[in-house]
Amino acid sequence: MEKEIKNLREQFKKRLASLETRPELQKIENEYIGRKGLIAQMLKRMSLLSAAEKPKVGQLLNKLKTDLQDALAEKKKELAKGISGEQGYIDITLPGQNFSRGTMHPVELILKETKNIFLGMGFSIVDGPEIELDYYNFEALNIPKDHPARDVQDSFYITPDILLRTQTSPMQVRTMENQSPPVRIVSAGKCFRRDSIDNTHTPMFHQIEGLAVDVDLSLSDLKGVITEFCKQIFGKDRIIRFRPGYFPFVEPGAEVDVSCGLCQGKGCSSCGYSGWLEIMGAGMVHPHVLEMVGYDTEKYTGFAFGMGAERIAMLKYDINDIRLFFENDIRFLTQFK
Ligand code: PHE
């Protein structure tokens, strides 16, 4: 039996050396040291041995068993290392990892959808700097240094001439400086104002700006474009209205409201019982602005509009607190597929 034990040891060594996966290892473990394994069978056969032989063979078998157990444990560790990549070994029998798919941020969804709607109406997309010159953010938009309109956009200045843009309207000027009419652009991005945080204000937010300049553009063109946009983004049954509104770079200027989708304009708590929700500022481009970029104001007219992307998202998805957009709570974010 001693010879047999020696053979078994040799055979085990070879098989252990060539195995590569956990299931193979499990199989060999059962075969050799399992309850009905080879060693167990040999232990049973010991009853046939003489009294003189028994203790020696018993000792050898016990030693064999512990040696095999040690070797198996060692091999297990080695395989685990391989899986973690240290030896470039991958156990393809292991179940794969699940990758969870991210979702689009609601503001990003609105920006994308808005851009697509305006692309469909023949506008192109332009991008501009978030750190802006005072000249583009205010001066060229008919807001000189001492103009009170600067107060409502209390700003983050970097130097007296450079600030974080408070609106996307500077892109009107930058675009017109670079091309001659006809112009049809939208520009979306971050804006910054020194506002206190509450459920409708954050110091950083997103705006979407639109500008069209051409011969014979009138307020009805503006109204048509905005009506189409509102129907596409909020639904076909929505209507809009223009109220007079003041922005130094448009004349006439307007605030645009869309009918409340919850009460169909009848009035409810969501729209402050007015039936309307304010969504943007708009108007015909002020001749001063056109003159500043050298456009012929006798020949060309234009319209412009600007809206807050968070506000549009809040209205579309029925969100009552702007802070939710920036808290990165996964329970909130994963609701937008
Ligand atoms: N820029 C204006 C604002 O931030 C909105 C606006 C854009 C108004 C274009 C008129 C025309 O309030």
Q: Class by helix and strand content?
A: alpha+beta
Q: Ions, cofactors, ligands: which are bound?
A: phenylalanine
Counting DSSP E segments of at least 2 residues, the number of strands comes to 10
CATH topology-level name of the largest domain:
BirA Bifunctional Protein, domain 2
Low-confidence stretches: none
How do the strands of the widest beta sheet line up side by side?
Answer: 1-5-6-10-9-8-7
CATH superfamily of the largest domain: Bira Bifunctional Protein, Domain 2
List the helices and strands and how they pair.
Layout: H1 2-18, H2 22-33, H3 38-45, H4 54-83, H5 106-120, E1 124-125, E2 131-133, H6 134-137, E3 157-159, E4 162-164, H7 170-178, E5 183-192, E6 204-214, H8 219-234, E7 240-244, E8 250-259, E9 276-285, H9 287-292, E10 301-308, H10 309-317, H11 330-333
Parallel strand pairs: 1-5
Antiparallel strand pairs: 2-4, 3-4, 5-6, 6-10, 7-8, 8-9, 9-10
Task: Describe the structure in your own words.
With 337 residues, the chain is α+β, with helices and mostly antiparallel strands. It has two domains: 2-80; 106-333, 2-Layer Sandwich (BirA Bifunctional Protein, domain 2), CATH 3.30.930. It is 39% helix and 19% strand. It has helices at 2-18, 22-33, 38-45, 54-83, 106-120, 134-137, 170-178, 219-234, 287-292, 309-317, 330-333, and strands at residues 124-125, 131-133, 157-159, 162-164, 183-192, 204-214, 240-244, 250-259, 276-285, 301-308. A seven-stranded mixed sheet has the order 1-5-6-10-9-8-7, with helices on both faces. Strand 3 and strand 4 form a beta hairpin. Helix 2 (22-33) packs antiparallel against helix 4. The radius of gyration is 37 Å and the shape is rod-shaped. Phenylalanine binds next to strand 9 and strand 10. Phenylalanine is lined by residues 167, 169, 247, 250, 281-283, 304-306.
